[in-house]
Amino acid sequence: MLRQSLLQLKAARSMSTATKTSLKIGLIPADGVGKEVIPAAQQAIAALGSDIPKPEFIPLIAGFETFTRTGVALPEETVQILKEECDCALFGSVSSPSKKVVGYSSPIVALRKELDLYANVRPVLSVAPTPEETPAVDLVVVRENTECLYIKQEQSSNGPNGREARATRLITERASSRIGKMAFELALHRPAKQVTIIHKSNVLSVTDGLFRETVRAVPLGAEGRYDGVKILEQLVDSAVYKLFRDPREFDVMVAPNLYGDILSDAAAALVGSLGLVPSVNAGDNFVMGEPVHGSAPDIAGKNIANPIASIRSAALMLRHMGYAKGADRIDAAVDTVVREGQFATPDVGGKSTTQEVVDAITRLI
User: Fold this and answer.
1) Are residues 264 and 137 part of one domain?
2) Which of 139, 186, 325, 356 could cross-link to 250 by cystine, CB 3.0-4.6 Å?
3) Among candidate residues 236, 254, 270, the one where a domain is terminated
4) Which residues form the Isopropylmalate dehydrogenase-like domain (predicted)?
């Protein structure tokens, strides 16, 4: 299961935290409901007591609202504090505009690059009882976090057919290899032991072809470590179709940045809400939890945002750092609240407030 595999992955990366007396956690609520769900995750972590080093929460700023106030979406001070003072971080949500705004670029994309958080690990798991005809979901999307179209190299010009827009897509052997290794490591500790490479190399034979070939080559240099892991492939369009037909076909899905983003959001629909799905942005030396949902400006400030994705992201973050006992307590509390259904926000059919769900979880922690 993912809980065990993240712990194993942490051990493999030698992120030793055994001697720590405090845990410095950067908090970046950013925009919209991030200001409500990051405090929820903070409360869950604080409820753990002695199962983790004493948490010290460091508030930091970033986001579109920061940009409108200061002209900078990701202040250099935020990056410096994360690098020099923090052991890990939690990021809320960002309200990136759909139209071009001169001088603005997404701070979460920039943070992933600045901290070399090359893997976005997004587990999607059914917890609440599902109708008999609905397949249970237990899969992980492993999304390459630093390349693809998200390098944001776009140009526009006038041509014979009017305005033209072009975007550069970057896929490298190095990035593809290390995201492939992340996927295989996760698969080693899951029951199905299966990695599905998502690509579109029948059309994008150079870029997706390199991604596909490089990920397939990962076991060849691992001296038999991944011999028990089955390797499958799926074109991204048919993967979406199969995902909705029967998600049980998938275990660990590894994909370039754009495909992974779309697939993980689509998979969230299978378990009821984006508000339930967590993620971590992981590198070799730092980890940042991030709920999958967006800033949800339509409900921001109404105290009805689902805090579960943020709280689960905090658990994933702690687990990746080696604090399995604390992460287990958070996960168990969330599972109980979801299964019982007494406290649930409107996105999953309930009538509870954000704080009521948080209080129910922290009581169980």
Assistant:
1) yes
2) 139
3) 270
4) 24-361
Q: Cα 52 vs. chain centroid, distance in angstroms?
A: 22
| Residues annotated as catalytic (active site), given as ranges | 150, 200, 237, 261, 265
Q: What is the pLDDT of residues 74-90, one digit of tens each?
A: 999 999 999 999 999 99
Q: Is residue 124 part of a domain?
A: no
Domain of residue 252: give its range.
129-270
Structural domains counted in the chain: 2
CATH code: domain of residue 240: 3.40.718.10
**Token digits for 235?**
């074109």
Residue after which a domain boundary falls, among 214, 237, 270:
270
Whether residue 324 has pLDDT greater than 60: yes
Burial (CB count <10 Å: 0-12, 13-18, 19+), residue 209: middle
E strands along the chain, which residues? 22-30, 54-59, 88-93, 119-125, 138-144, 148-159, 162-170, 194-199, 230-235, 252-255, 280-282, 287-289
Q: Once rounded to an integer, what is the mean pLDDT over residues 92-103?
A: 88
| Residue 221 and residue 304 in one domain | no
Nearest to 268 by CA among 257, 279, 258: 279
Residues 6 or more apart whose Cβ sits within 8 Å of residue 210: 171, 172, 173, 176
Task: State the Cα–Cα distance between residues 106 and 62, nearest whole angstrom.
Answer: 9
The residue to which tokens 């309200």 are assigned: 95
The answer to whether residue 291 scores a pLDDT higher than 90 is yes
